[in-house]
C-alpha cells in the first residue's frame, strides 16, 4: 500500500496495531508465587522462580518468565517478566515486542516497563519506554513521600513535566506479590486491583479478576496440569482469560479476543519465545467495518448521512456529539447518528464553555508546541494562509498546509509526536492530525484530536461501504469545535467521519474510550448508512 496521488486515493487509518498497544499496556495478574518452592508437576520451561522467594528474598533474580505471543494462531512476538532484588529495592521488568504487518510494511512495537519498589512494597519509580514510531517515547515517574508524582514524558530530547497526585489505592507488582506471600490473596479468590499503565494515561486502571474455577491446561512440552482460570476485565481491552498454576498463582496463559480474533500469550522456553517471525501477520483487513448503504448515492459525496448502528444486546455505546455529529434517536438496540458536512442544512453548531477550551492551548507530550521546529513550522503555516487573522480561514489554511507539508505519506510511522512529525514530515492520519493540532495551538487556536471511523476510498460498491479506524483534528473557531482532516486534505470533512472519542493529546497514544468503542463495534454490529443530498 504505497502512497499514490495523495491520501485522497489511499486513506490510511489506524489499525489493530493501536489496539494491541493498548492491550499490552495494561497489567494482567499477579506475577509471583503464593506458596511452595516449585511449580506443581515439575519445572516448566520458560519459568524460573527462586526457591528462596519470600517477604525478605535474596539478592538477584527472583522470577523470570518468557511468553510466546500469537494472533490468529500465528506468532507475533514475545513477552518477558523478571523480578530482581538490588539492595533494598525490588525491580520488576515487563518487556513486550510485537511485529505485525500493515499492508506491505512491518510494524515493530516495543513496550518496556520497569517498576521500582521498597522491600516493604512502597512505590519509588516507574520507567516506561514505548517504541511505536521512529522516536521512542519515555515516561519517567518518581513517587514522592508527600504523595505526589513527578512525571517526565520525553521524545526526541523534548521533555514535558507534570506534577500529579499519587493514587493511594493503586497496587504495584511487588506489593501484589507480598500480599500473595503473606496469604492476604489466595488462589481461587476474586479481587479487584488498580494499576498504573503510563502509556494509557496518568490515572490507574481498575482491573477485575473473577475466579472461574480450576481447568486443565496443556503446556508446550505436552504435559497437562490443573490451573486456576481468572476472567480479567479492564476498560482498555475488554475481558480475557488468565490461566495460573494452582499453587503459585503464576500466569501460564493469557487469552484476549480483539475484534473477533484471539490474542494469546503462552509460557514458553526462552529460545522458542525469541524465535523470529518469518512473515508478520497481516492485521489491517481485520480492523475494518462493513456498512450497508440503503440509497443509490455515494455517502462520501452526500451532504448528510444517517447512520443506524445495531448494537449487541446489553452493550450500550456512548457516542460523542460534535459539530458534525448528533444523536438522531435510539430505539432498542438501534442507535441513530446524523453526520453532516459543515454548512449543510442538518449541521448544527456545538458550543464549548471557555473553561474547557483553555487546556487545548497547552503543550503536551504529543502536542509539544514548545519545540522550536514546531514553532517554526507554525509560523510558516500561518504565512502560507496569506497571513489572515480570520480564525476559520487560518484553520483551513493550516489544514491544507499540513497535507502538503507531510510529503512522505506512508505506513512506516505508527503514532508520532508533533515535534517528530515536524522533523520527519512523514506519516499517516495520526501524524497529520497531531501536527495540525500543534500548529493550530502554536497560532493561538485551541485544538484537539478526534478518534473515529472513516469510509475507505473506493470502497463504495454494490450498496456497501467499508469503514476503518481514523484520526482527524478539531479546532475551536468562533465558539465552535470545527472538524478538519489534514490527512485527506478536507478542511470540511465529508459525512463519512464518525467520531468515537475526543483526545487532548496529553499522555497516551490512543484514545482509551474510542479504541474500546471501536473494538466493541468492529465485527459485532450491523451498520447502515442512508445518504441524503
Structural overview:
This protein is an alpha+beta fold and 533 residues long. It starts with 15 loop residues before the first helix and ends with a strand. It has helices at residues 16-25, 173-181, 270-273, 354-357, 372-384, 391-405, 418-424, 429-442, 512-521, and strands at residues 47-49, 60-71, 74-86, 89-102, 105-118, 123-131, 137-143, 148-155, 158-165, 191-195, 205-218, 224-234, 238-244, 251-258, 261-267, 281-282, 288-293, 304-310, 325-331, 334-340, 447-455, 464-477, 480-484, 498-503, 526-532. Residues 1-19 and 26-39 have low confidence and may be disordered. The radius of gyration is 24 Å and the shape is globular. The strands form two sheets. It has a 16-stranded mixed sheet that branches. Strands 17, 18, 19, 20, 21, 22, 23, 24 and 25 form a nine-stranded mixed sheet that branches. It is built from nine helices and 25 strands. Helix 5 packs across helix 7 (418-424), helix 6 packs across helix 8 (429-442) and helix 7 packs across helix 8 (429-442).
Amino acid at each position: 500500500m504505497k502512497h499514490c496521488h495523495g491520501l485522497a486515493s489511499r486513506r490510511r487509518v489506524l489499525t489493530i496495531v493501536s489496539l494491541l498497544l493498548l492491550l499490552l499496556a495494561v497489567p494482567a495478574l499477579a506475577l509471583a508465587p503464593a506458596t511452595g518452592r516449585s511449580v506443581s508437576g515439575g519445572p516448566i520451561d520458560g519459568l524460573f522462580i527462586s526457591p528462596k522467594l519470600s517477604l525478605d528474598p535474596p539478592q538477584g533474580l527472583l522470577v523470570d518468565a518468557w511468553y510466546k505471543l500469537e494472533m490468529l494462531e500465528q506468532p507475533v512476538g514475545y513477552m518477558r517478566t523478571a523480578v530482581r532484588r538490588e539492595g533494598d529495592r525490588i525491580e520488576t521488568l515487563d518487556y513486550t515486542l510485537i511485529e505485525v504487518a500493515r499492508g506491505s510494511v512491518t510494524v515493530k512495537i516495543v513496550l518496556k516497563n520497569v517498576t521500582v519498589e521498597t522491600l516493604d512494597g512502597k512505590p519509588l519509580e516507574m520507567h516506561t519506554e514505548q517504541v511505536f514510531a521512529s522516536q521512542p517515547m519515555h515516561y519517567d515517574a518518581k513517587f514522592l513521600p508527600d504523595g505526589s508524582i513527578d512525571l517526565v514524558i520525553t521524545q526526541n530530547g523534548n521533555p514535558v513535566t507534570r506534577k500529579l497526585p499519587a493514587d493511594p489505592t493503586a497496587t504495584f507488582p511487588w506489593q501484589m506479590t507480598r500480599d500473595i506471600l503473606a496469604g492476604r490473596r489466595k488462589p481461587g479468590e476474586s479481587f479487584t486491583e488498580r494499576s498504573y499503565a503510563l502509556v494509557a494515561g496518568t490515572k490507574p486502571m481498575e482491573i477485575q479478576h473473577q475466579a472461574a474455577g480450576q481447568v486443565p491446561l496443556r503446556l508446550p512440552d505436552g504435559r497437562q496440569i490443573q490451573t486456576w482460570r481468572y476472567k480479567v476485565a479492564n476498560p482498555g481491552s475488554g475481558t480475557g482469560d488468565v490461566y495460573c498454576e494452582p499453587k503459585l498463582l503464576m500466569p501460564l496463559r493469557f487469552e484476549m479476543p480483539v475484534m473477533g480474533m484471539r490474542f494469546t500469550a503462552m509460557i514458553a522456553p526462552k529460545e522458542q519465545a525469541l524465535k523470529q517471525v518469518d512473515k508478520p501477520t497481516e492485521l489491517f483487513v481485520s480492523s475494518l467495518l462493513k456498512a450497508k448503504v440503503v440509497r443509490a448515492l455515494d455517502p462520501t459525496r452526500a451532504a448528510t448521512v444517517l447512520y443506524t448502528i445495531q448494537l449487541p444486546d446489553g452493550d450500550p455505546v456512548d457516542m460523542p456529539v460534535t459539530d458534525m455529529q448528533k444523536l438522531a434517536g435510539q430505539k432498542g438496540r438501534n442507535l441513530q447518528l446524523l453526520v453532516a458536512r459543515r454548512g449543510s442544512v442538518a449541521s448544527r453548531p456545538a458550543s464549548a464553555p471557555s473553561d474547557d477550551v483553555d487546556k487545548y492551548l497547552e503543550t503536551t507530550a504529543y502536542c509539544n508546541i514548545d519545540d522550536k521546529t514546531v514553532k517554526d513550522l507554525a509560523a510558516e503555516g500561518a504565512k502560507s494562509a496569506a497571513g489572515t487573522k480570520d480564525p476559520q480561514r487560518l484553520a483551513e489554511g493550516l489544514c491544507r498546509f499540513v497535507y502538503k507539508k507531510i510529503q512522505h505519506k506512508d505506513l512506516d510511522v505508527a503514532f508520532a509526536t508533533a515535534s517528530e512529525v515536524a522533523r520527519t514530515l512523514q506519516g499517516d492520519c495520526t501524524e497529520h492530525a497531531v501536527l495540525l493540532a500543534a500548529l493550530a495551538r502554536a497560532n493561538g487556536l485551541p485544538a484537539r484530536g478526534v478518534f473515529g471511523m472513516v469510509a475507505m476510498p473506493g470502497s463504495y460498491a454494490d450498496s456497501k461501504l467499508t469503514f476503518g479506524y481514523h484520526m482527524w483534528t478539531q479546532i475551536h473557531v468562533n465558539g465552535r469545535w470545527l472538524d478538519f482532516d489534514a490527512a485527506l486534505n478536507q478542511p470540511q470533512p465529508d459525512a463519512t467521519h464518525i467520531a468515537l472519542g475526543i483526545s487532548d493529546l496529553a499522555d497516551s497514544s490512543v484514545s482509551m474510550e474510542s479504541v474500546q468503542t471501536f473494538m466493541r463495534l468492529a465485527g459485532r454490529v450491523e451498520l447502515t448508512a442512508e445518504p441524503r443530498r
